[in-house]
Design brief:
Blueprint: E1 5-7, H1 12-21, E2 25-28, H2 34-39, E3 47-50, E4 60-63, E5 66-70, H3 75-80, H4 82-87, H5 89-96, H6 101-106, H7 109-115, H8 122-129, E6 132-135, E7 139-141, E8 146-148, E9 151-152, E10 160-166, E11 170-177, E12 184-192, E13 197-202, E14 209-210, H9 212-220, H10 224-228, H11 245-265, E15 269-271
Parallel strand pairs: 1-3, 2-3, 11-15
Antiparallel strand pairs: 4-5, 5-10, 6-7, 6-10, 8-9, 11-12, 12-13, 13-14
Length: 272
């Protein structure tokens, strides 16, 4: 690992100032993604800005049928939250299946969304629920936030402050995992609202995305059969050692159908 300076600000303003004054600096949230990248010498920030002491970035609140989760809130806090379990239980289910206990106790929702791994869990929930990513400068709709592999709409001087999720009528998260890494080979976050059904997909493409054909079919008829009848094209999907693009194209409607079954049964999802 290369040498670097370390700064642990106590306020958001101090973090923003440090980030602005050091063009080659990086924000450190939980460190579950950045530290391994640095260890493999794939990143060489001159300064690490540790957000761990910025209390304004932590916590979970509710207002007007929306849950607001601070960027530095850990996965284990989300999965243990009575408020999340009551209002969006699928989000608690999602958080409970991330990595292992170490990752869940150190990793944060803001760090996960900012890193934007193609197989990360939270981005699928963000696009399916129509979340808003609040930064120190602006508000960004999740549909416009995830741009490519490890690429987001964030500018260098932007810090995610919180992620705000509308509360759906029902939701389910199903994750077909790589048993070694526990990342998604394909993950489906299904959210049902008054006027529409939204389907967020992770693990299948360069970044989390919505599946319009499934959304249209399920908005019309919310049944497992409607999901299984949809043919998902394999173009643009990932090919790797975990499965071909065609395999992932097959998994997307099948897992969505299972998510519909779980949603109708009132259960928050499962890990397959």
């Amino acid at each position: 690992m290369y040498p670097f300076d370390y700064f642990r600000p106590g306020t958001l303003d101090q973090a923003r100032e440090a980030l602005t004054s050091n063009p080659e600096s990086k924000l450190l949230a939980g460190g579950m993604s950045l530290v391994p990248v640095m260890r493999h010498r794939l990143a060489r920030p001159s300064v690490l800005i540790d957000l761990g002491k910025v209390e304004a970035l932590k916590g979970i609140t509710e207002s007007e049928h929306r849950l607001r989760i601070g960027a530095m809130t850990t996965h284990c806090t989300v999965c243990a939250s009575d408020l999340v379990k009551r209002r969006i239980p699928a989000l608690a289910q999602l958080a409970s299946g991330i990595g292992d206990p170490l990752v869940r106790n150190r990793g944060t929702i803001g760090g996960s969304i900012a890193h934007n791994d193609p197989a990360a869990c939270y981005p699928s929930a963000a696009v399916a629920l129509g979340a808003t990513i609040h930064t120190n400068r602006r508000d960004i709709a999740a549909d416009h936030f995830f741009l490519g592999t490890f690429t987001t709409a964030l500018g260098h001087d932007e810090i995610i402050v919180a992620v705000e999720f509308p509360v759906p009528n029902g939701a389910t998260y199903i994750k077909f995992i790589n048993a070694a890494s526990r990342f998604s080979i394909v993950g489906i976050f299904l959210a049902r609202f008054d006027q529409e059904v939204r389907v967020g997909v992770t693990g299948a493409a360069r970044h989390a995305h919505r599946c319009a054909p499934l959304e249209q079919a399920l908005t019309k008829t919310f049944t497992p059969q409607a999901a299984r009848a949809v043919k998902v094209e394999s173009g643009g999907l990932i090919e790797d050692i975990n499965g071909s693009a065609a395999y992932r194209a097959h998994l997307i409607p099948e897992l969505t159908a299972r998510a519909v079954e779980q949603c109708l049964a009132g259960t928050p999802g499962e890990i397959v």
